[in-house]
Amino acid sequence: MADRAARPVRLLAVALAAALAAAAPAPARAASYAGPLIDAHSHLPSARAIGGYVEAMPRHGVTRVVLLGVGGVQKDDPAWLAAAARRHPDRVVAGLPLPDPTDPAAAARLDAALGQGGVRVVGEVHLRQVGRRTIDRDPGDPAFGRILDVLARHGVPVVIHYELTDPAAAALEGALAAHRRATVVLAHAGEGPPARVEGLLARNPNLLVDLSGMHFQRRPALATETGPLDPAWKALIEKLPDRFLMGVDVWAPRLFEPATLDRLLAWTRRILGELRPDVAERVAWRNAAALFRLE
């Protein structure tokens, strides 16, 4: 009898709790990051495309864009990047493309180019890519090792496209260990996942990660266009805030359309706003400014 008498009271308590939960305000969403932003990884699809990007930069507080080659796919990359940097020297940092990292003569050519000065970054070098284009180059290849030695001697970082698996991560780790003075930036976080990336970063102080191309139009993504930052990525970035760079990774003509650029850059600021303020500042620009000597 006592249990039957108590049942209405329990039901009333459940209903009251549900009503209170429904009436409670939704958790406040973090404000978008409002500080400076360096796009540490983007590309050009033509000589004229830079104009649209530069027009978008003031709208979104982008102070610099680092333009990279597309792994040797576009033969005109060197000319396009150099012209963009000449036209917009206060906005554009032109990377030095390196089409084939397994070419035995590449290290000597790179040494000569870096000896002329002015190069702040080399890449994007395609070592491992699976999909529309399949590339699977060994980071332990002697030719690439000589390239890493040249980069280390000149103090210039290299951005690599290298999609991770457990065996691929082990091969990359071997190259990083053999060339500790070389600084390597893993583009697109190697497509993750966070646990694999964390292990690489923990064991290899000469490795950094850029978060380019991990936006809502690509996979893996840090977040959908309107959803929250992936908790595992958020935890890792906040654990190692000095090891991450932010990049947009525009490359196709459609991504340079003003409305698309606005969406991508607004998303970037929203995601950065979900990080602790000190971390957001490092990822948004401080790490890139230090790495590319822009301060």
Please explain how this structure is put together.
- This protein has helices at 2-23, 50-60, 77-87, 106-115, 142-154, 166-178, 194-203, 231-239, 258-273, 277-291; strands at residues 37-42, 62-67, 92-94, 122-129, 135-136, 158-162, 184-186, 207-210, 244-245.
- It is α/β, with parallel strands linked by helices.
- It has one domain: Metal-dependent hydrolases (TIM Barrel, Alpha-Beta Barrel).
- The protein is built from ten helices and nine strands.
- A six-stranded mixed beta sheet has the order 5-4-6-7-8-9.
- The longest helix is centred in the first third of the chain and has 22 residues, at 2-23.
Short description:
It is built from 10 helices and 9 strands.
Key descriptive features of the protein:
single chain, 295 residues, alpha/beta, TIM Barrel, three-stranded parallel beta sheet
Terminal CA distance reads: 78 Å
What is the beta-strand fraction?
A: 5-15%
Read across the widest sheet, the strand sequence of neighbours is 5-4-6-7-8-9
Spell the H/E element sequence.
Answer: HEHEHEHEEHEHEHEHEHH
Please count the helical segments: 10
If classified by CATH, what would the architecture be? Alpha-Beta Barrel
Cα gyration radius (Å):
23 Å
**Low-confidence region ranges:** 1-27
Task: Say how many strands there are.
Answer: 9
CATH class: Alpha Beta
CATH topology (fold) name: TIM Barrel
CATH superfamily: Metal-dependent hydrolases
Q: Characterize the largest beta sheet: strand count, sense, and whether it forms a barrel.
A: 6 strands, mixed
The domain tally reads 1
- What quaternary form is this? single chain
Mean pLDDT across residues: 91
Summarize the amount of helix as a percent range: 40-55%
